[in-house]
Amino acid sequence: MHNYHDANGNLPTHAIYSKGGKTPLLSWRVAILPYIEEGALYNEFKLDQAWDSPHNKKLIAKMPKLYDPIMGKREEGKTLIQVFTGPDTIFDGPKKMKLAQVTDGTSSTILAVEAKDAVVWSQPIDLPLPKDKNKLPAVGGRFSSGVHVLMCDGSVRLLPLDTMPKVLRPMITPASGD
Fold it and tell me: What pLDDT does residue 71 have?
């Protein structure tokens, strides 16, 4: 994510969008491929086609090992690594965010998380942040000791599974002053 930011001046958006910017086609996980030493795979994608187009669908099985689960059952072409999406998150549709806009602090703000349910790695689907501030999407579950989170400063932490929404939610919002 940081390499992408350094090269483009912002973090990747939630998805690679269609020309009009309305239709998400491919995941941010595809967008960062050149920055995780997977440029050749990135070049195989047709960026103007959806993740499940006949051409791009063939690339699902080529998921980089970086997106594999650390432990437990592996499902071909599926990953647990996801981001929180929607208003008040870093990944709010096609809006571009710079690390400097993470005013709550990069060491205090979650960039990506180990979700409970796996998704096709190239599909532009992640964890929508519910409007109800007492709820959160399902995260973790592979480790009894907690859930792994990637912070905006690049560090990885293990948070207890029972971390309450009132504690975790401020760590998701990048600029809410909490």
Answer: 66
